[in-house]
Amino acid sequence: MRKWKVLLLALLLGIQTLANAGLSEGIAAFNAKDYATALREFLPLANQGNAQAQNNLGVMYKNGRGVPKDEAQAVAWYRKAAEQGNANAQTNLGNMYGNGRGVPKDVVLAYMLYNIAAANGNEKAINNRASLEGTLSRQQITEAQALASAWKPGTPFPTTSRTGKLANPDR
Q: Which of 28, 97, 106, 160 sits between 20 and 30 A of 11, alpha carbons compared?
């Protein structure tokens, strides 16, 4: 019985190593501007649920790197990674909501996403949240904080807010 457990552990570690190797190769290819190879490495990992690969595909679709520029597709990949707790994807998805890129503009959802990513230590999210905060009403901040507090990793993010499309509703 113990041999089977050791064998299973070795197999699982080997699979994880292979997955990380594909991710590392994809990142290296992307940085070398070899977007076709990056796509080939990231896509299977993303389809298997690898949050970092999903976020990387979001970046590729947002910027049209190796794929046609498609902000809605970028949002879809960012959302998959963000809902798993990937702070970079949460920040990227927040940027998309904050700027109305690939989704209707919703500053409350942007602030919510920055808040969650900031709690995960993402410096860009901390800065983005601080910049956005000065433009929001107390009502919008309260709603965003409530949404952030209610969210749990592995569950879907909301796609709309009550006050995120309003311009300073209580100022």
A: 28
Torsion of CA 62, 48, 122, 116, to 10 degrees: 100
Residue keyed to tokens 């552990």: 9
Q: What is the pLDDT of residues 102-145, one digit of tens each?
A: 999 999 999 999 999 999 999 999 999 999 999 999 999 999 99
Which residue, chain included where needed, has tokens 């919703």?
Answer: 106
End-to-end alpha-carbon separation of the chain, Å?
67
CA distances from 108 to 7, 89, 149 (A): 49, 17, 13
Please give the model's pTM, rounded to 2 decimal places.
Answer: 0.86
Distance between CA atoms of 35 and 18, rounded to whole angstroms? 20
Helices and strands (DSSP H and E) totals, the chain: 8, 0
* Helix/strand/coil for 85: coil
Q: By the 8 A CB rule, do 94 and 145 touch?
A: no
